[in-house]
Amino acid sequence: MTDAPPSTLLADQTAYAEAVQLALDSAAAYYRDGTSTLDDDAYDRLVRGIQAYEAEHPDAVLPSSPTGKVAGGAVVGDVPHTVPMLSLDNVFGAEQLAEWVASLERRLGRPVTAWSVEPKLDGLAITARYRGGRLAQLVTRGDGTAGEDVSHAIGTIVGLPARLADPVTVELRGEVMMTASQFEEACAKRQAHDGTSFANPRSAAAGTLRAQDRPYVCELTFFGYGALSHPDDSSELAVRLRESPHSEVMAWVAGQGVQTPAVTDVGGVVAASLEQVQERVEQIAAERAELAFGIDGIVIKCDLAADQAQAGFSSRAPRWAIAYKLPATEKITKLVAVEWNTGRTGIIAPRAVLEPVELDGSVVTFATLHNVADIQRRGLMLGDSVVVYKAGDVIPRVEAPVVHLRTGDEQPIAIPQVCPSCGDAIDASQERWRCVRGRACRAIASIGYAVGRDQLDIEGLAENRILQLLDAGLIVDFADLFYLTREQILGLDRMGEVSTDNLLAALDRAKGQPLSRVFCALGVRGTGRSMSRRIARHFGGMDAIRAADAEAIQAVEGIGPEKAPVVVAELVELADLIDKLIKAGVNMTEPGWVAPGDPSDTANSELPLAGMSVVVTGAMSGALEALSRNEMNELIERAGGKASSSVSAKTSLLVAGEKAGSKRAKAESLGVRIVDPEEFAGLVGSLL
Ligand code: IVH
Predict the structure, then answer these.
(1) What is the pTM of this model?
(2) How many CB atoms lie within 10 A of CB 493?
(3) Quick one: CATH architecture of 604-687?
């Protein structure tokens, strides 16, 4: 766990005044639209520096100083809060947490025996006012005493229902955020609309919550962390909310149909001692990277109303709660270079090369830069200090240059004039530039992908062999492989009789691969292995896939309104290739597929893994030894189950081989059934 980061040293009144201004500007940007001019660590260091200077020079404190103010002094909104929306004090590391607990217990004059330990959700605080059980108004935190009315967002926030189970009048407090998939979806929508992208889920949520007249709607998520009644309310519910332990209040909130962290793996628990609190803190910190939403710490609260009442509040924060901060997921580092790569589908993508920086437990050296227009809009330059963001499974991204850190030595980023791979022209008519040769530009990469183990699985076609075939003009795409004659293959350098026959046999076998693999081999943009399986299982045959319009494609789980038209357009572009495959006799159906509603559709419920969510970890052995992860996933799905990559409360079964690590530990702590590869082979039996 981390220790307190050092504070910025402020030498004189000028440095102090500058620091105050910088902190105010930064807080204003953060609370306005979630953007950063300072990363979290740098902001914390700055504020600690300001505090230290003020402690030494109490007469010189500027009235505008952010210390002791909610939201760092940034003022937004004009709807008064019934009860102030406060901030939380922070601790960094186990030692400081223990000190805080000790000082609170001294203040109370007794040990605290019930602590509520919850994730600190990294979004925007909001209060949801329900009247008679109906959601009447949404207000942001603002400066803590008044916030902005964002009621227009009602209906777009998952987890915040328009009606509660009971017709009660209550205020629910919690955090509005974007999950990783909502964030990707929102970025795609914005990209399609104006070619820009959101910097990170937090600023995407902030912008989306405020946006009133966007032509597209992005979904948000709410997690509640508190409920309160008006201080003058003396109804039975009001009294109950005031007098019950926090954990019971949250159970009541969940019972009203509102989402709370209880539905996640890091939901609130009640701990009876500091040791138990620490244990839960460690568990939540370990889960962080796998969560579908961002957390920036853990909140520890006195669970009992009597403890809370006695501890009271400071001007800024409750004394009965503390935020245990986790390392930042956003840091400032240097943009060293920009690399340009042409991908398998011909898309030319820039990639940032960074001065290595540690983020969320891993060292980040490369990050996504979306496209040329994005680089130009952000005004990025080589040598710039840039904000880099990474949280959970989101790929690291470069947000924006920190302009006030420029030295004057920054250089413009050279934009390629020709395709970096083949030197041919660039089609710049779309935001995402593409080589005019499309897939043909990187034929080696796209053919290599198609023949790979998890696609057509054609042995004997290493990259140099594909290159030979391309150079000899025998193939231009992977469909041409199926038309090669024995003589043509034998005519290649270093190709003997045996290898030729082996290759021909492998090609013949490949023709019988299931549709899911053939479809995957096409390399349709936005579809990987598991998506290809879902598409194949949904439609059953290539004809049906090709006949589907965007709306029909969207019926496949995981394909949204942005991706669907791309899939349709890609299939049009790939029409000749698909026709060639069909003519060569390549299989275009998914074995075992039954049309939805067909009487034999009941067969699925009799499969051994029907309705189960299964995760595989560690090395497979016995009958499963030779299977790749993809092949294991295929097997799970053939057996009626759903293959997943991470263990959660929803997991039904973990197949754990040798050297299984954190997934096994997690499954054990969640009480998920664990089997070894041998047992699993027995379960799926004849489907193997
Ligand atoms: S309780 C009286 N619980 O963190 C304030 N806050 O940095 C009680 N936050 O303003 C807040 N997750 O917006 C609480 N589980 C959680 C939270 C949480 C995130 C936010 C909240 C608060 C901010 C303080």
Answers:
(1) 0.66
(2) 8
(3) 3-Layer(aba) Sandwich (3.40)
